[in-house]
């Protein structure tokens, strides 16, 4: 893992219901840098490492972060994401691959970190209304179990793991 001075790191995130923001702010706190929302379109110019966080929307990075990642050129990038599914699942691995493939020319991925994030109650309620029992996309018992598993995340443990992971990119004073 390459190491960077804190002023060389840009941390940008996209979050709809707050899960990814929570992880971003935990990482930012550990690294001593700001967590910048993607809506602010922070410039990566002059930064050695871009840490970019997104929420998984239908199997890939959400639209706002997708657009940001596509515009990065020749950057070292570390990705993090929150998703409803188990981070160790094949689905999560596929999401990670798809997000990595979005990066612009010459970018290299230095690391990725995934953690579960609860699906908002409002979204679950909408899904139940749109797909009532008997509908081909009705929520199956397996889905309900997955949603229940996600409902307590990101938790303190997830935040600590995220902090530890990204602290690995930070140079000790004077040791770049
Ligand atoms: C429209 C929509 C699509 C989603 N698609 C997926 C998906 O394909 N796979 C998955 O594991 N989670 C999916 N989720 C769950 C979110 O990725 C998860 O709840 C995430 O933590 C939300 O992050 P946020 O609170 O930062 O917006 C979806 C959620 C929504 C609202």
Written description of the protein model:
The chain is of the alpha/beta class and 176 residues long. The chain has two domains: 6-117 and 154-167, Rossmann fold (3-Layer(aba) Sandwich), CATH 3.40.50; 118-152, no CATH class. The protein is 38% helix and 20% strand. Strands 1, 2, 3, 4, 5 and 6 form a six-stranded mixed sheet that branches. It binds flavin mononucleotide. Residues 15-21, 55-59, 82-85, 91, 117-119, 123 line the site of flavin mononucleotide.
Can you describe this structure in just a few lines?
This protein is an alpha/beta fold.
CATH architecture of the largest domain: 3-Layer(aba) Sandwich
* Name of the CATH homologous superfamily of the largest domain: Flavodoxin domain
Number of discrete domains: 2
Helix content: 25-40%
Instruction: Report mean pLDDT, rounded to a whole number.
Output: 95
What's the main sheet like? 6 strands, mixed
- Rg measurement, Å: 17 Å
- From the spread of the alpha carbons, the general shape counts as globular
Please specify the SSE layout and strand pairing.
Blueprint: E1 9-13, H1 19-31, E2 36-37, E3 49-57, E4 60-61, H2 63-71, E5 76-83, H3 90-101, E6 108-116, H4 121-130, H5 141-150, H6 156-167
Parallel strand pairs: 1-2, 1-3, 3-5, 5-6
Antiparallel strand pairs: 3-4
Helix pairs in contact: 1-6
Bound molecules: flavin mononucleotide (FMN).
Residues 15-21, 55-59, 82-85, 91, 117-119, 123 line the site of flavin mononucleotide (FMN).
